[in-house]
Design a protein that fits this description.
Elements: H1 8-11, H2 13-16, E1 42-45, H3 47-60, E2 66-69, H4 71-75, H5 79-86, E3 92-97, H6 100-108, E4 115-117, H7 126-131, E5 134-138, H8 143-154, E6 158-165, E7 173-174, H9 178-187, E8 190-196, H10 203-222, E9 230-231, H11 235-240, H12 266-269, E10 276-281, E11 284-288, E12 293-294, E13 300-301, E14 306-311, E15 328-331, E16 334-339, E17 347-352, E18 362-366, H13 375-382, H14 386-391, E19 399-401
Parallel strand pairs: 1-19, 2-3, 3-4, 4-5, 5-6, 6-7, 6-8, 8-9
Antiparallel strand pairs: 1-10, 10-18, 11-14, 12-13, 14-17, 15-16, 15-18, 16-17
The structure holds pyridoxal-5'-phosphate.
Amino acid sequence: MPVTRRGFLGGLASAAVVPRLAATPSPLPAGGPPAPDRFDPWIEVLPDAMRHNLRLLSRLAGGRPVMAVIKNNAYGLGLTEAARILEPMPEVVGLAVVKTAEALALRDAGVSKPVLLLALAAETDGPELVRRGVQLSLCTDEAPRLAAEAGRRAGQRAQVQVDIDTGMNRVGIQYHTALPVLREIAGLPLDVRGTFTGFTEDRAFDREQLRRLREVAAAAERDGYRPGPLHAASSDAVFNYPESALDLIRPGISLFGAYPSNEGNEAAIATLQPAFRLRARVVRVEQLRPGDGVSYGRNFVAERPTWIATLPVGHTDGVPRRSVDGARVLIGERTYAVIGAVSASHTIVALGDEPTARVGDVGTLVGPDHSDIHPNAVATATGMSVYDILMHLSPTLPKTVL
Ligand SMILES: *Cc1c(COP(=O)(O)O)cnc(C)c1O
């Protein structure tokens, strides 16, 4: 199975659907730094890197505006933290999320730019979403009627964007039966703010999908439908199919500094900067004797005296279990191999013949500081999709915005 394909949308639901006032539940006040000597792991968010990536993507797309996709807790980096960094940028024309709770959390956080909900709104949520100016996706054949009804109950027109399914067969209005639905939309009291599709990221087929979107939008326009801005390009297309940029681009993962695939040549096209670090402090340094094993399963057994260091961060925090297959941790200037097993709350690295780390030293598991810990390097080492490396970061990790 190609690891770049997205198996992530379902698995994250439990982490992202949280009470709306706590979109990034945290044991610490939002944005507050951990105590300087605390051993809890944390995420550092790097606003300059995020802004660099956004400007770079817009430039790659010929200066087009950006609908910044910050769904699923901003791919693990913190929904409101990312919104505060990105919203003020002139290139950003809106923020897109997939969960209703996140759309409302953005408004609660004071976001005033357009917020697009890339999901079907429940009938009970509709009126509040409309009143709070959240753009609803018309992503099923019933959605236009539901959105109009939500607007009627809210006492104002619903802002909507029309999601055309051009071949993904996930959500959206099927392009080949869309024409009567688009005519219906034109006749309903709806404020259409855009028409979009999502690519399958099958290179040859993306072209056919773009053709289908353009064709159905043009045909509907002849019948009085006003499509608004057309858009299709997520990160992959911004790099690999620039002709699909249309009126605006809709990147997600690349905003946070990860290339959408591990085997592509995106890094040769433009240099993204990882916009976060996953960090924890060394809690113990020990010397193994020959024959000593490490962690559950004793998958690592020392052949000679070997220094090891333990970091109190594990798979519950988002460290892939498969980090033992080749992921490395930066401590000081050097990176060290993860050994033994990643347990719920602990990761152990081999230092080698010398005790080159000390208790309290900061270890970085993912970040911009060394090529070994670039998000795509971690994805490659663990055989995982880079989307999982980011989106599996626990929403309970405290965030420090630098
Ligand atoms: C997630 C998503 C995006 C962004 O995709 P990336 O690959 O992260 O850039 C864009 N559009 C839709 C509809 C999405 O669900």
